[in-house]
Amino acid sequence: MFSRDRWLEILDTISKNKLRTILAGSTVALGILIFIVLYGLGNGLENTFKSFFKDDQLNTIWINPGRTSKPYAGYESNRRIEFDNDDYADISEKFNFFIDGITPRITLTARNISYKLKSNNFSVRGVGPDHQKNEMTIMMQGRFINSIDIINKERYVVIGRLVKQDLFGEENPIGKFINGGGRTWKVIGVFQDDGGDNEERYIYAPYTTIQSIQRGSDNVGQIIITYKSEIGFDGALEFEKKIKSYIKNRKKIDPTDPRGIFIRSASSDLKESEDFSNVLKMIVSFVGFGTLLAGIIGISNIMVYVVKERTKELGIRKAIGATPKSIVWMVLQESIFITTISGYIGLFLGVMFLSSIGDALQEDFYIIDPYVDLYTALLATLMLIVFGGIAGFVPAKKASNIKPIEALNDK
Amino acid sequence: MIKIKNLHKSYNIGKNSLHVLKGLDLEIKEGELVAIMGSSGSGKSTLLNIIGMLDNHDKGSYELDGVIIKKMNETKAAEYRNKFLGFVFQSFNLINYKNALDNVILPLYYQGISRKVREKKALKYLSDVGLKNWSHHLPNELSGGQKQRVAIARAMVSEPKVLLADEPTGALDSNTSKEVMDLIQKINKAGKTILVVTHEHDISQMCNRIVRLKDGVIVEDKKIKQKKAL
Ligand SMILES: Nc1ncnc2c1ncn2[C@@H]1O[C@H](COP(=O)(O)OP(=O)(O)OP(=O)(O)O)[C@@H](O)[C@H]1O
Ligand SMILES: [Mg+2]
Question: Mind giving me the DSSP string for B71-136?
């Protein structure tokens, strides 16, 4: 069935019937090309969405205090809620089972920080050791704040990469002292963060130290919790619900009050964005499928036309001894050969095109690194080949079965 | 070589059926050169196509070289056509994108003969019809007479038992017609059985038997003294 002779006959036919070869070939190549490009751009858009959530630990919740909107248990509405050290300690203890890491975060507004003659405005965060885990902070030099620093209320700071660049330039900052708020602080580490430049402009200090310079306040600001990933998505939802009602009860907030405290979780954010990106994916798949379908219809029409045009030739071949089987195989092999070659040309051009785009569309169209996975691309090409084959097979089968005299009489 | 008894053939045109051949009896011996004549629509081509297994008959019997030809599957029919029969048509029916040599090669390709052998053989038959130097020309670069000679070479290359020619000179002028008939006479001299459908008196005189059809039956069947074509 794959004799050299037959291939030579087919190649001969293909090369001597350029128009129909090009017609069929370009339909398939174009179909695949458009499919790859559309699908790739869709994936690029999806990449952009994913990149928004690259920075934070996914199994993290942020608990922020706010103001109540309902009166409750003798308290007026619009009461300001604050978390203190006791709240923090009790939550840590009570939910110990779920918690992988927990930290307060006291955020101070940007203030002037200087080293020698250089100075700039930076925000300072008072945090605990687990903050490193929560924010996926990566240490470049030195170390992060540890629990002994917290107990001793050390005036230590861990500075962001950009803070180090601004204040120290090429100088090694570890062990040096910077000035801020009329005090000196010892630099013990430098960190980087995938979350973008802004994250690298922060300065971290032990939260106990920050509390002590705020006239001994025991406000802990936000509470950030990383829960154990083993508890799963449902466990996380349950945990969120439990901690919410625990805090509301503890802080005497109406259970039906939507304000008072706010809990933000990466998992619920992620779910929303995943829903969105699923919709996106559906649209992209739909468009891609449509293109593919158009390609299949195109190649089918061409094959019907090709066989029709060749009816007389097939009749001649039959008159001089071609069996129906050999006729069908000839048409099939020819169509599969053309669709395969041109399919891969389209595939190649499409992938080339996508990689030439690279990140050029990131600024204007939010498309990052458009790509098509090999599996999808090959599947699409295979589909066109198979359907091109079927599209060739049906009319070829018909043509091979008509009496040769009818084919010969065909004008 | 050919034995036909009570042959019937009808064509269905819409709801009506057109009875074309109405009980033909015909016997042709090996080595005969038979002219089939008759007015237009008398069923000459129909008869030839049935003999050539390009079409089926409805009733009666047809025996080719001792083999009874009945409605058979196309694969079998293809094999018989390839082995027993050669065709020449009025409109040549060459494959237009293949050159003369490749057209002649094609029957051998379907016989599964190796490349080298079939090329050599095809070239021999092309030179037999005087077209050795035209072997690499496409059909549309050839004159009508040359095309018909390519078609004859193609019909003969598979060494069939019977050559069937449906108005082989119908599209040619009288001089070219004579050349083609000369070729056919030579092939006949070499022992082949040949049937030629024709309208032309001159052409029929170059055969050695004339069968005349009218209204789907044979009205005349006579041996004649053959005239030389050239
Ligand atoms: N495929 C077909 N379908 C329907 N009718 C047909 C078909 N082929 C031939 N006929 C009819 O059968 C009759 C005989 O046709 P045939 O071709 O055998 O005649 P012919 O003797 O060869 O005529 P001509 O000299 O014009 O070639 C004609 O009336 C023709 O119209
Ligand atoms: Mg006729």
Answer: S--HHHHHHHHHHHEEEE-TT----TTS-HHHHHHHHHHHTT--HHHHHHHHHHHHHHTT-GGGTT
Find the helix packing angle between A18-51 and A374-401, rounded to 10°. Answer: 150
Which atom of ligand 1 is nearest to B44's Cα? 21
Are A338 and A21 in contact by the 8 Å Cβ rule? The answer is yes
Residues 6+ apart with CB under 8 A from B18: B10, B11, B12
The answer to whether the CB of B104 falls within 8 A of the CB of B129 is no
Cβ contact B110–A401 (<8 Å): no
How far, in Å, are A39, A46, A53, A157, A355 from residue A360 at the CA level? 17, 16, 21, 39, 10
Q: How many CB atoms lie within 10 A of CB B115?
A: 13
**B47, part of any domain:** yes
Number of domains chain B is built from: 1
Q: Position of tokens 């089926």?
A: B56
| CATH number, position B130 | 3.40.50.300
H or E stretch covering A168: helix A161-168
Residue B60 DSSP one-character state: E
Backbone φ, ψ for residue A147 (5° rounding): -70, -25
Mutational test site, ligand 1, from B15, B21, B46, B195, max ligand atoms within 8 Å of CB: B46
Domain hosting B118: range is: 2-223
Residue B11 domain flag:
yes
Whether residue B135 contacts residue B123, with contact meaning beta carbons closer than 8 Å, is answered with yes
From the number of C-beta atoms within 10 Å of its C-beta (0-12, 13-18, 19+), residue A333 rates as: buried
- The number of angstroms, rounded, from the C-alpha of B170 to the middle of its chain's C-alpha atoms is 13
How close B179 comes to chain A (CA, Å)? 24
Reading the block at residue B136, the tokens are: 């690499």
Q: Tokens representing A227? A: 């829960």
Half-sphere exposure of A144 (CA within 13 A, CB side): 19
User: Is residue B230 domain-resident?
Assistant: no
How many whole angstroms from its chain centre is CA A239? 26
Average pLDDT over residues A154-170: 93
Do A130 and A102 form a contact (C-beta atoms < 8 A)? Answer: yes
Lowest mean pLDDT among A56-60, A178-182, B98-102, B175-179: A56-60
Summarised one tens digit per residue, pLDDT across range A250-263 is 999 999 988 889 98
- The answer, yes or no, to whether any atom of ligand 1 lies below 6 A from the CB of B188, is no
How far is Cα B197 from Cα A135, in angstroms, rounded to an integer? 96
- CB contact at 8 A, A158 and A203: yes
ipTM attached to this prediction: 0.91
Q: Tell me the three state secondary structure of residue B165.
A: strand
**Which conformational region is residue B185 in: left (phi greater than 0), alpha (psi within -120 to 50 degrees), or beta?**
alpha
What pairing do the DSSP bridges indicate for beta strands B162-166 and B85-88?
Answer: parallel
Identify the residue whose tokens are 């439990």. A242
Owner of token pair 């933000």 = A264
- Amino acid A1: pLDDT: 47
Q: What CA–CA distance (Å, rounded) separates A116 from A110? A: 19
Q: Choose the mutation target among A320, A323, A408 for the interface with B, i.e. most B CBs under 10 Å.
A: A320
CA dihedral A290, A296, A300, A306 (to 10 degrees): 120
Lowest model confidence (mean pLDDT) among A145-154, A386-395, B145-154, B192-201:
A386-395
In a domain, B219, yes or no: yes
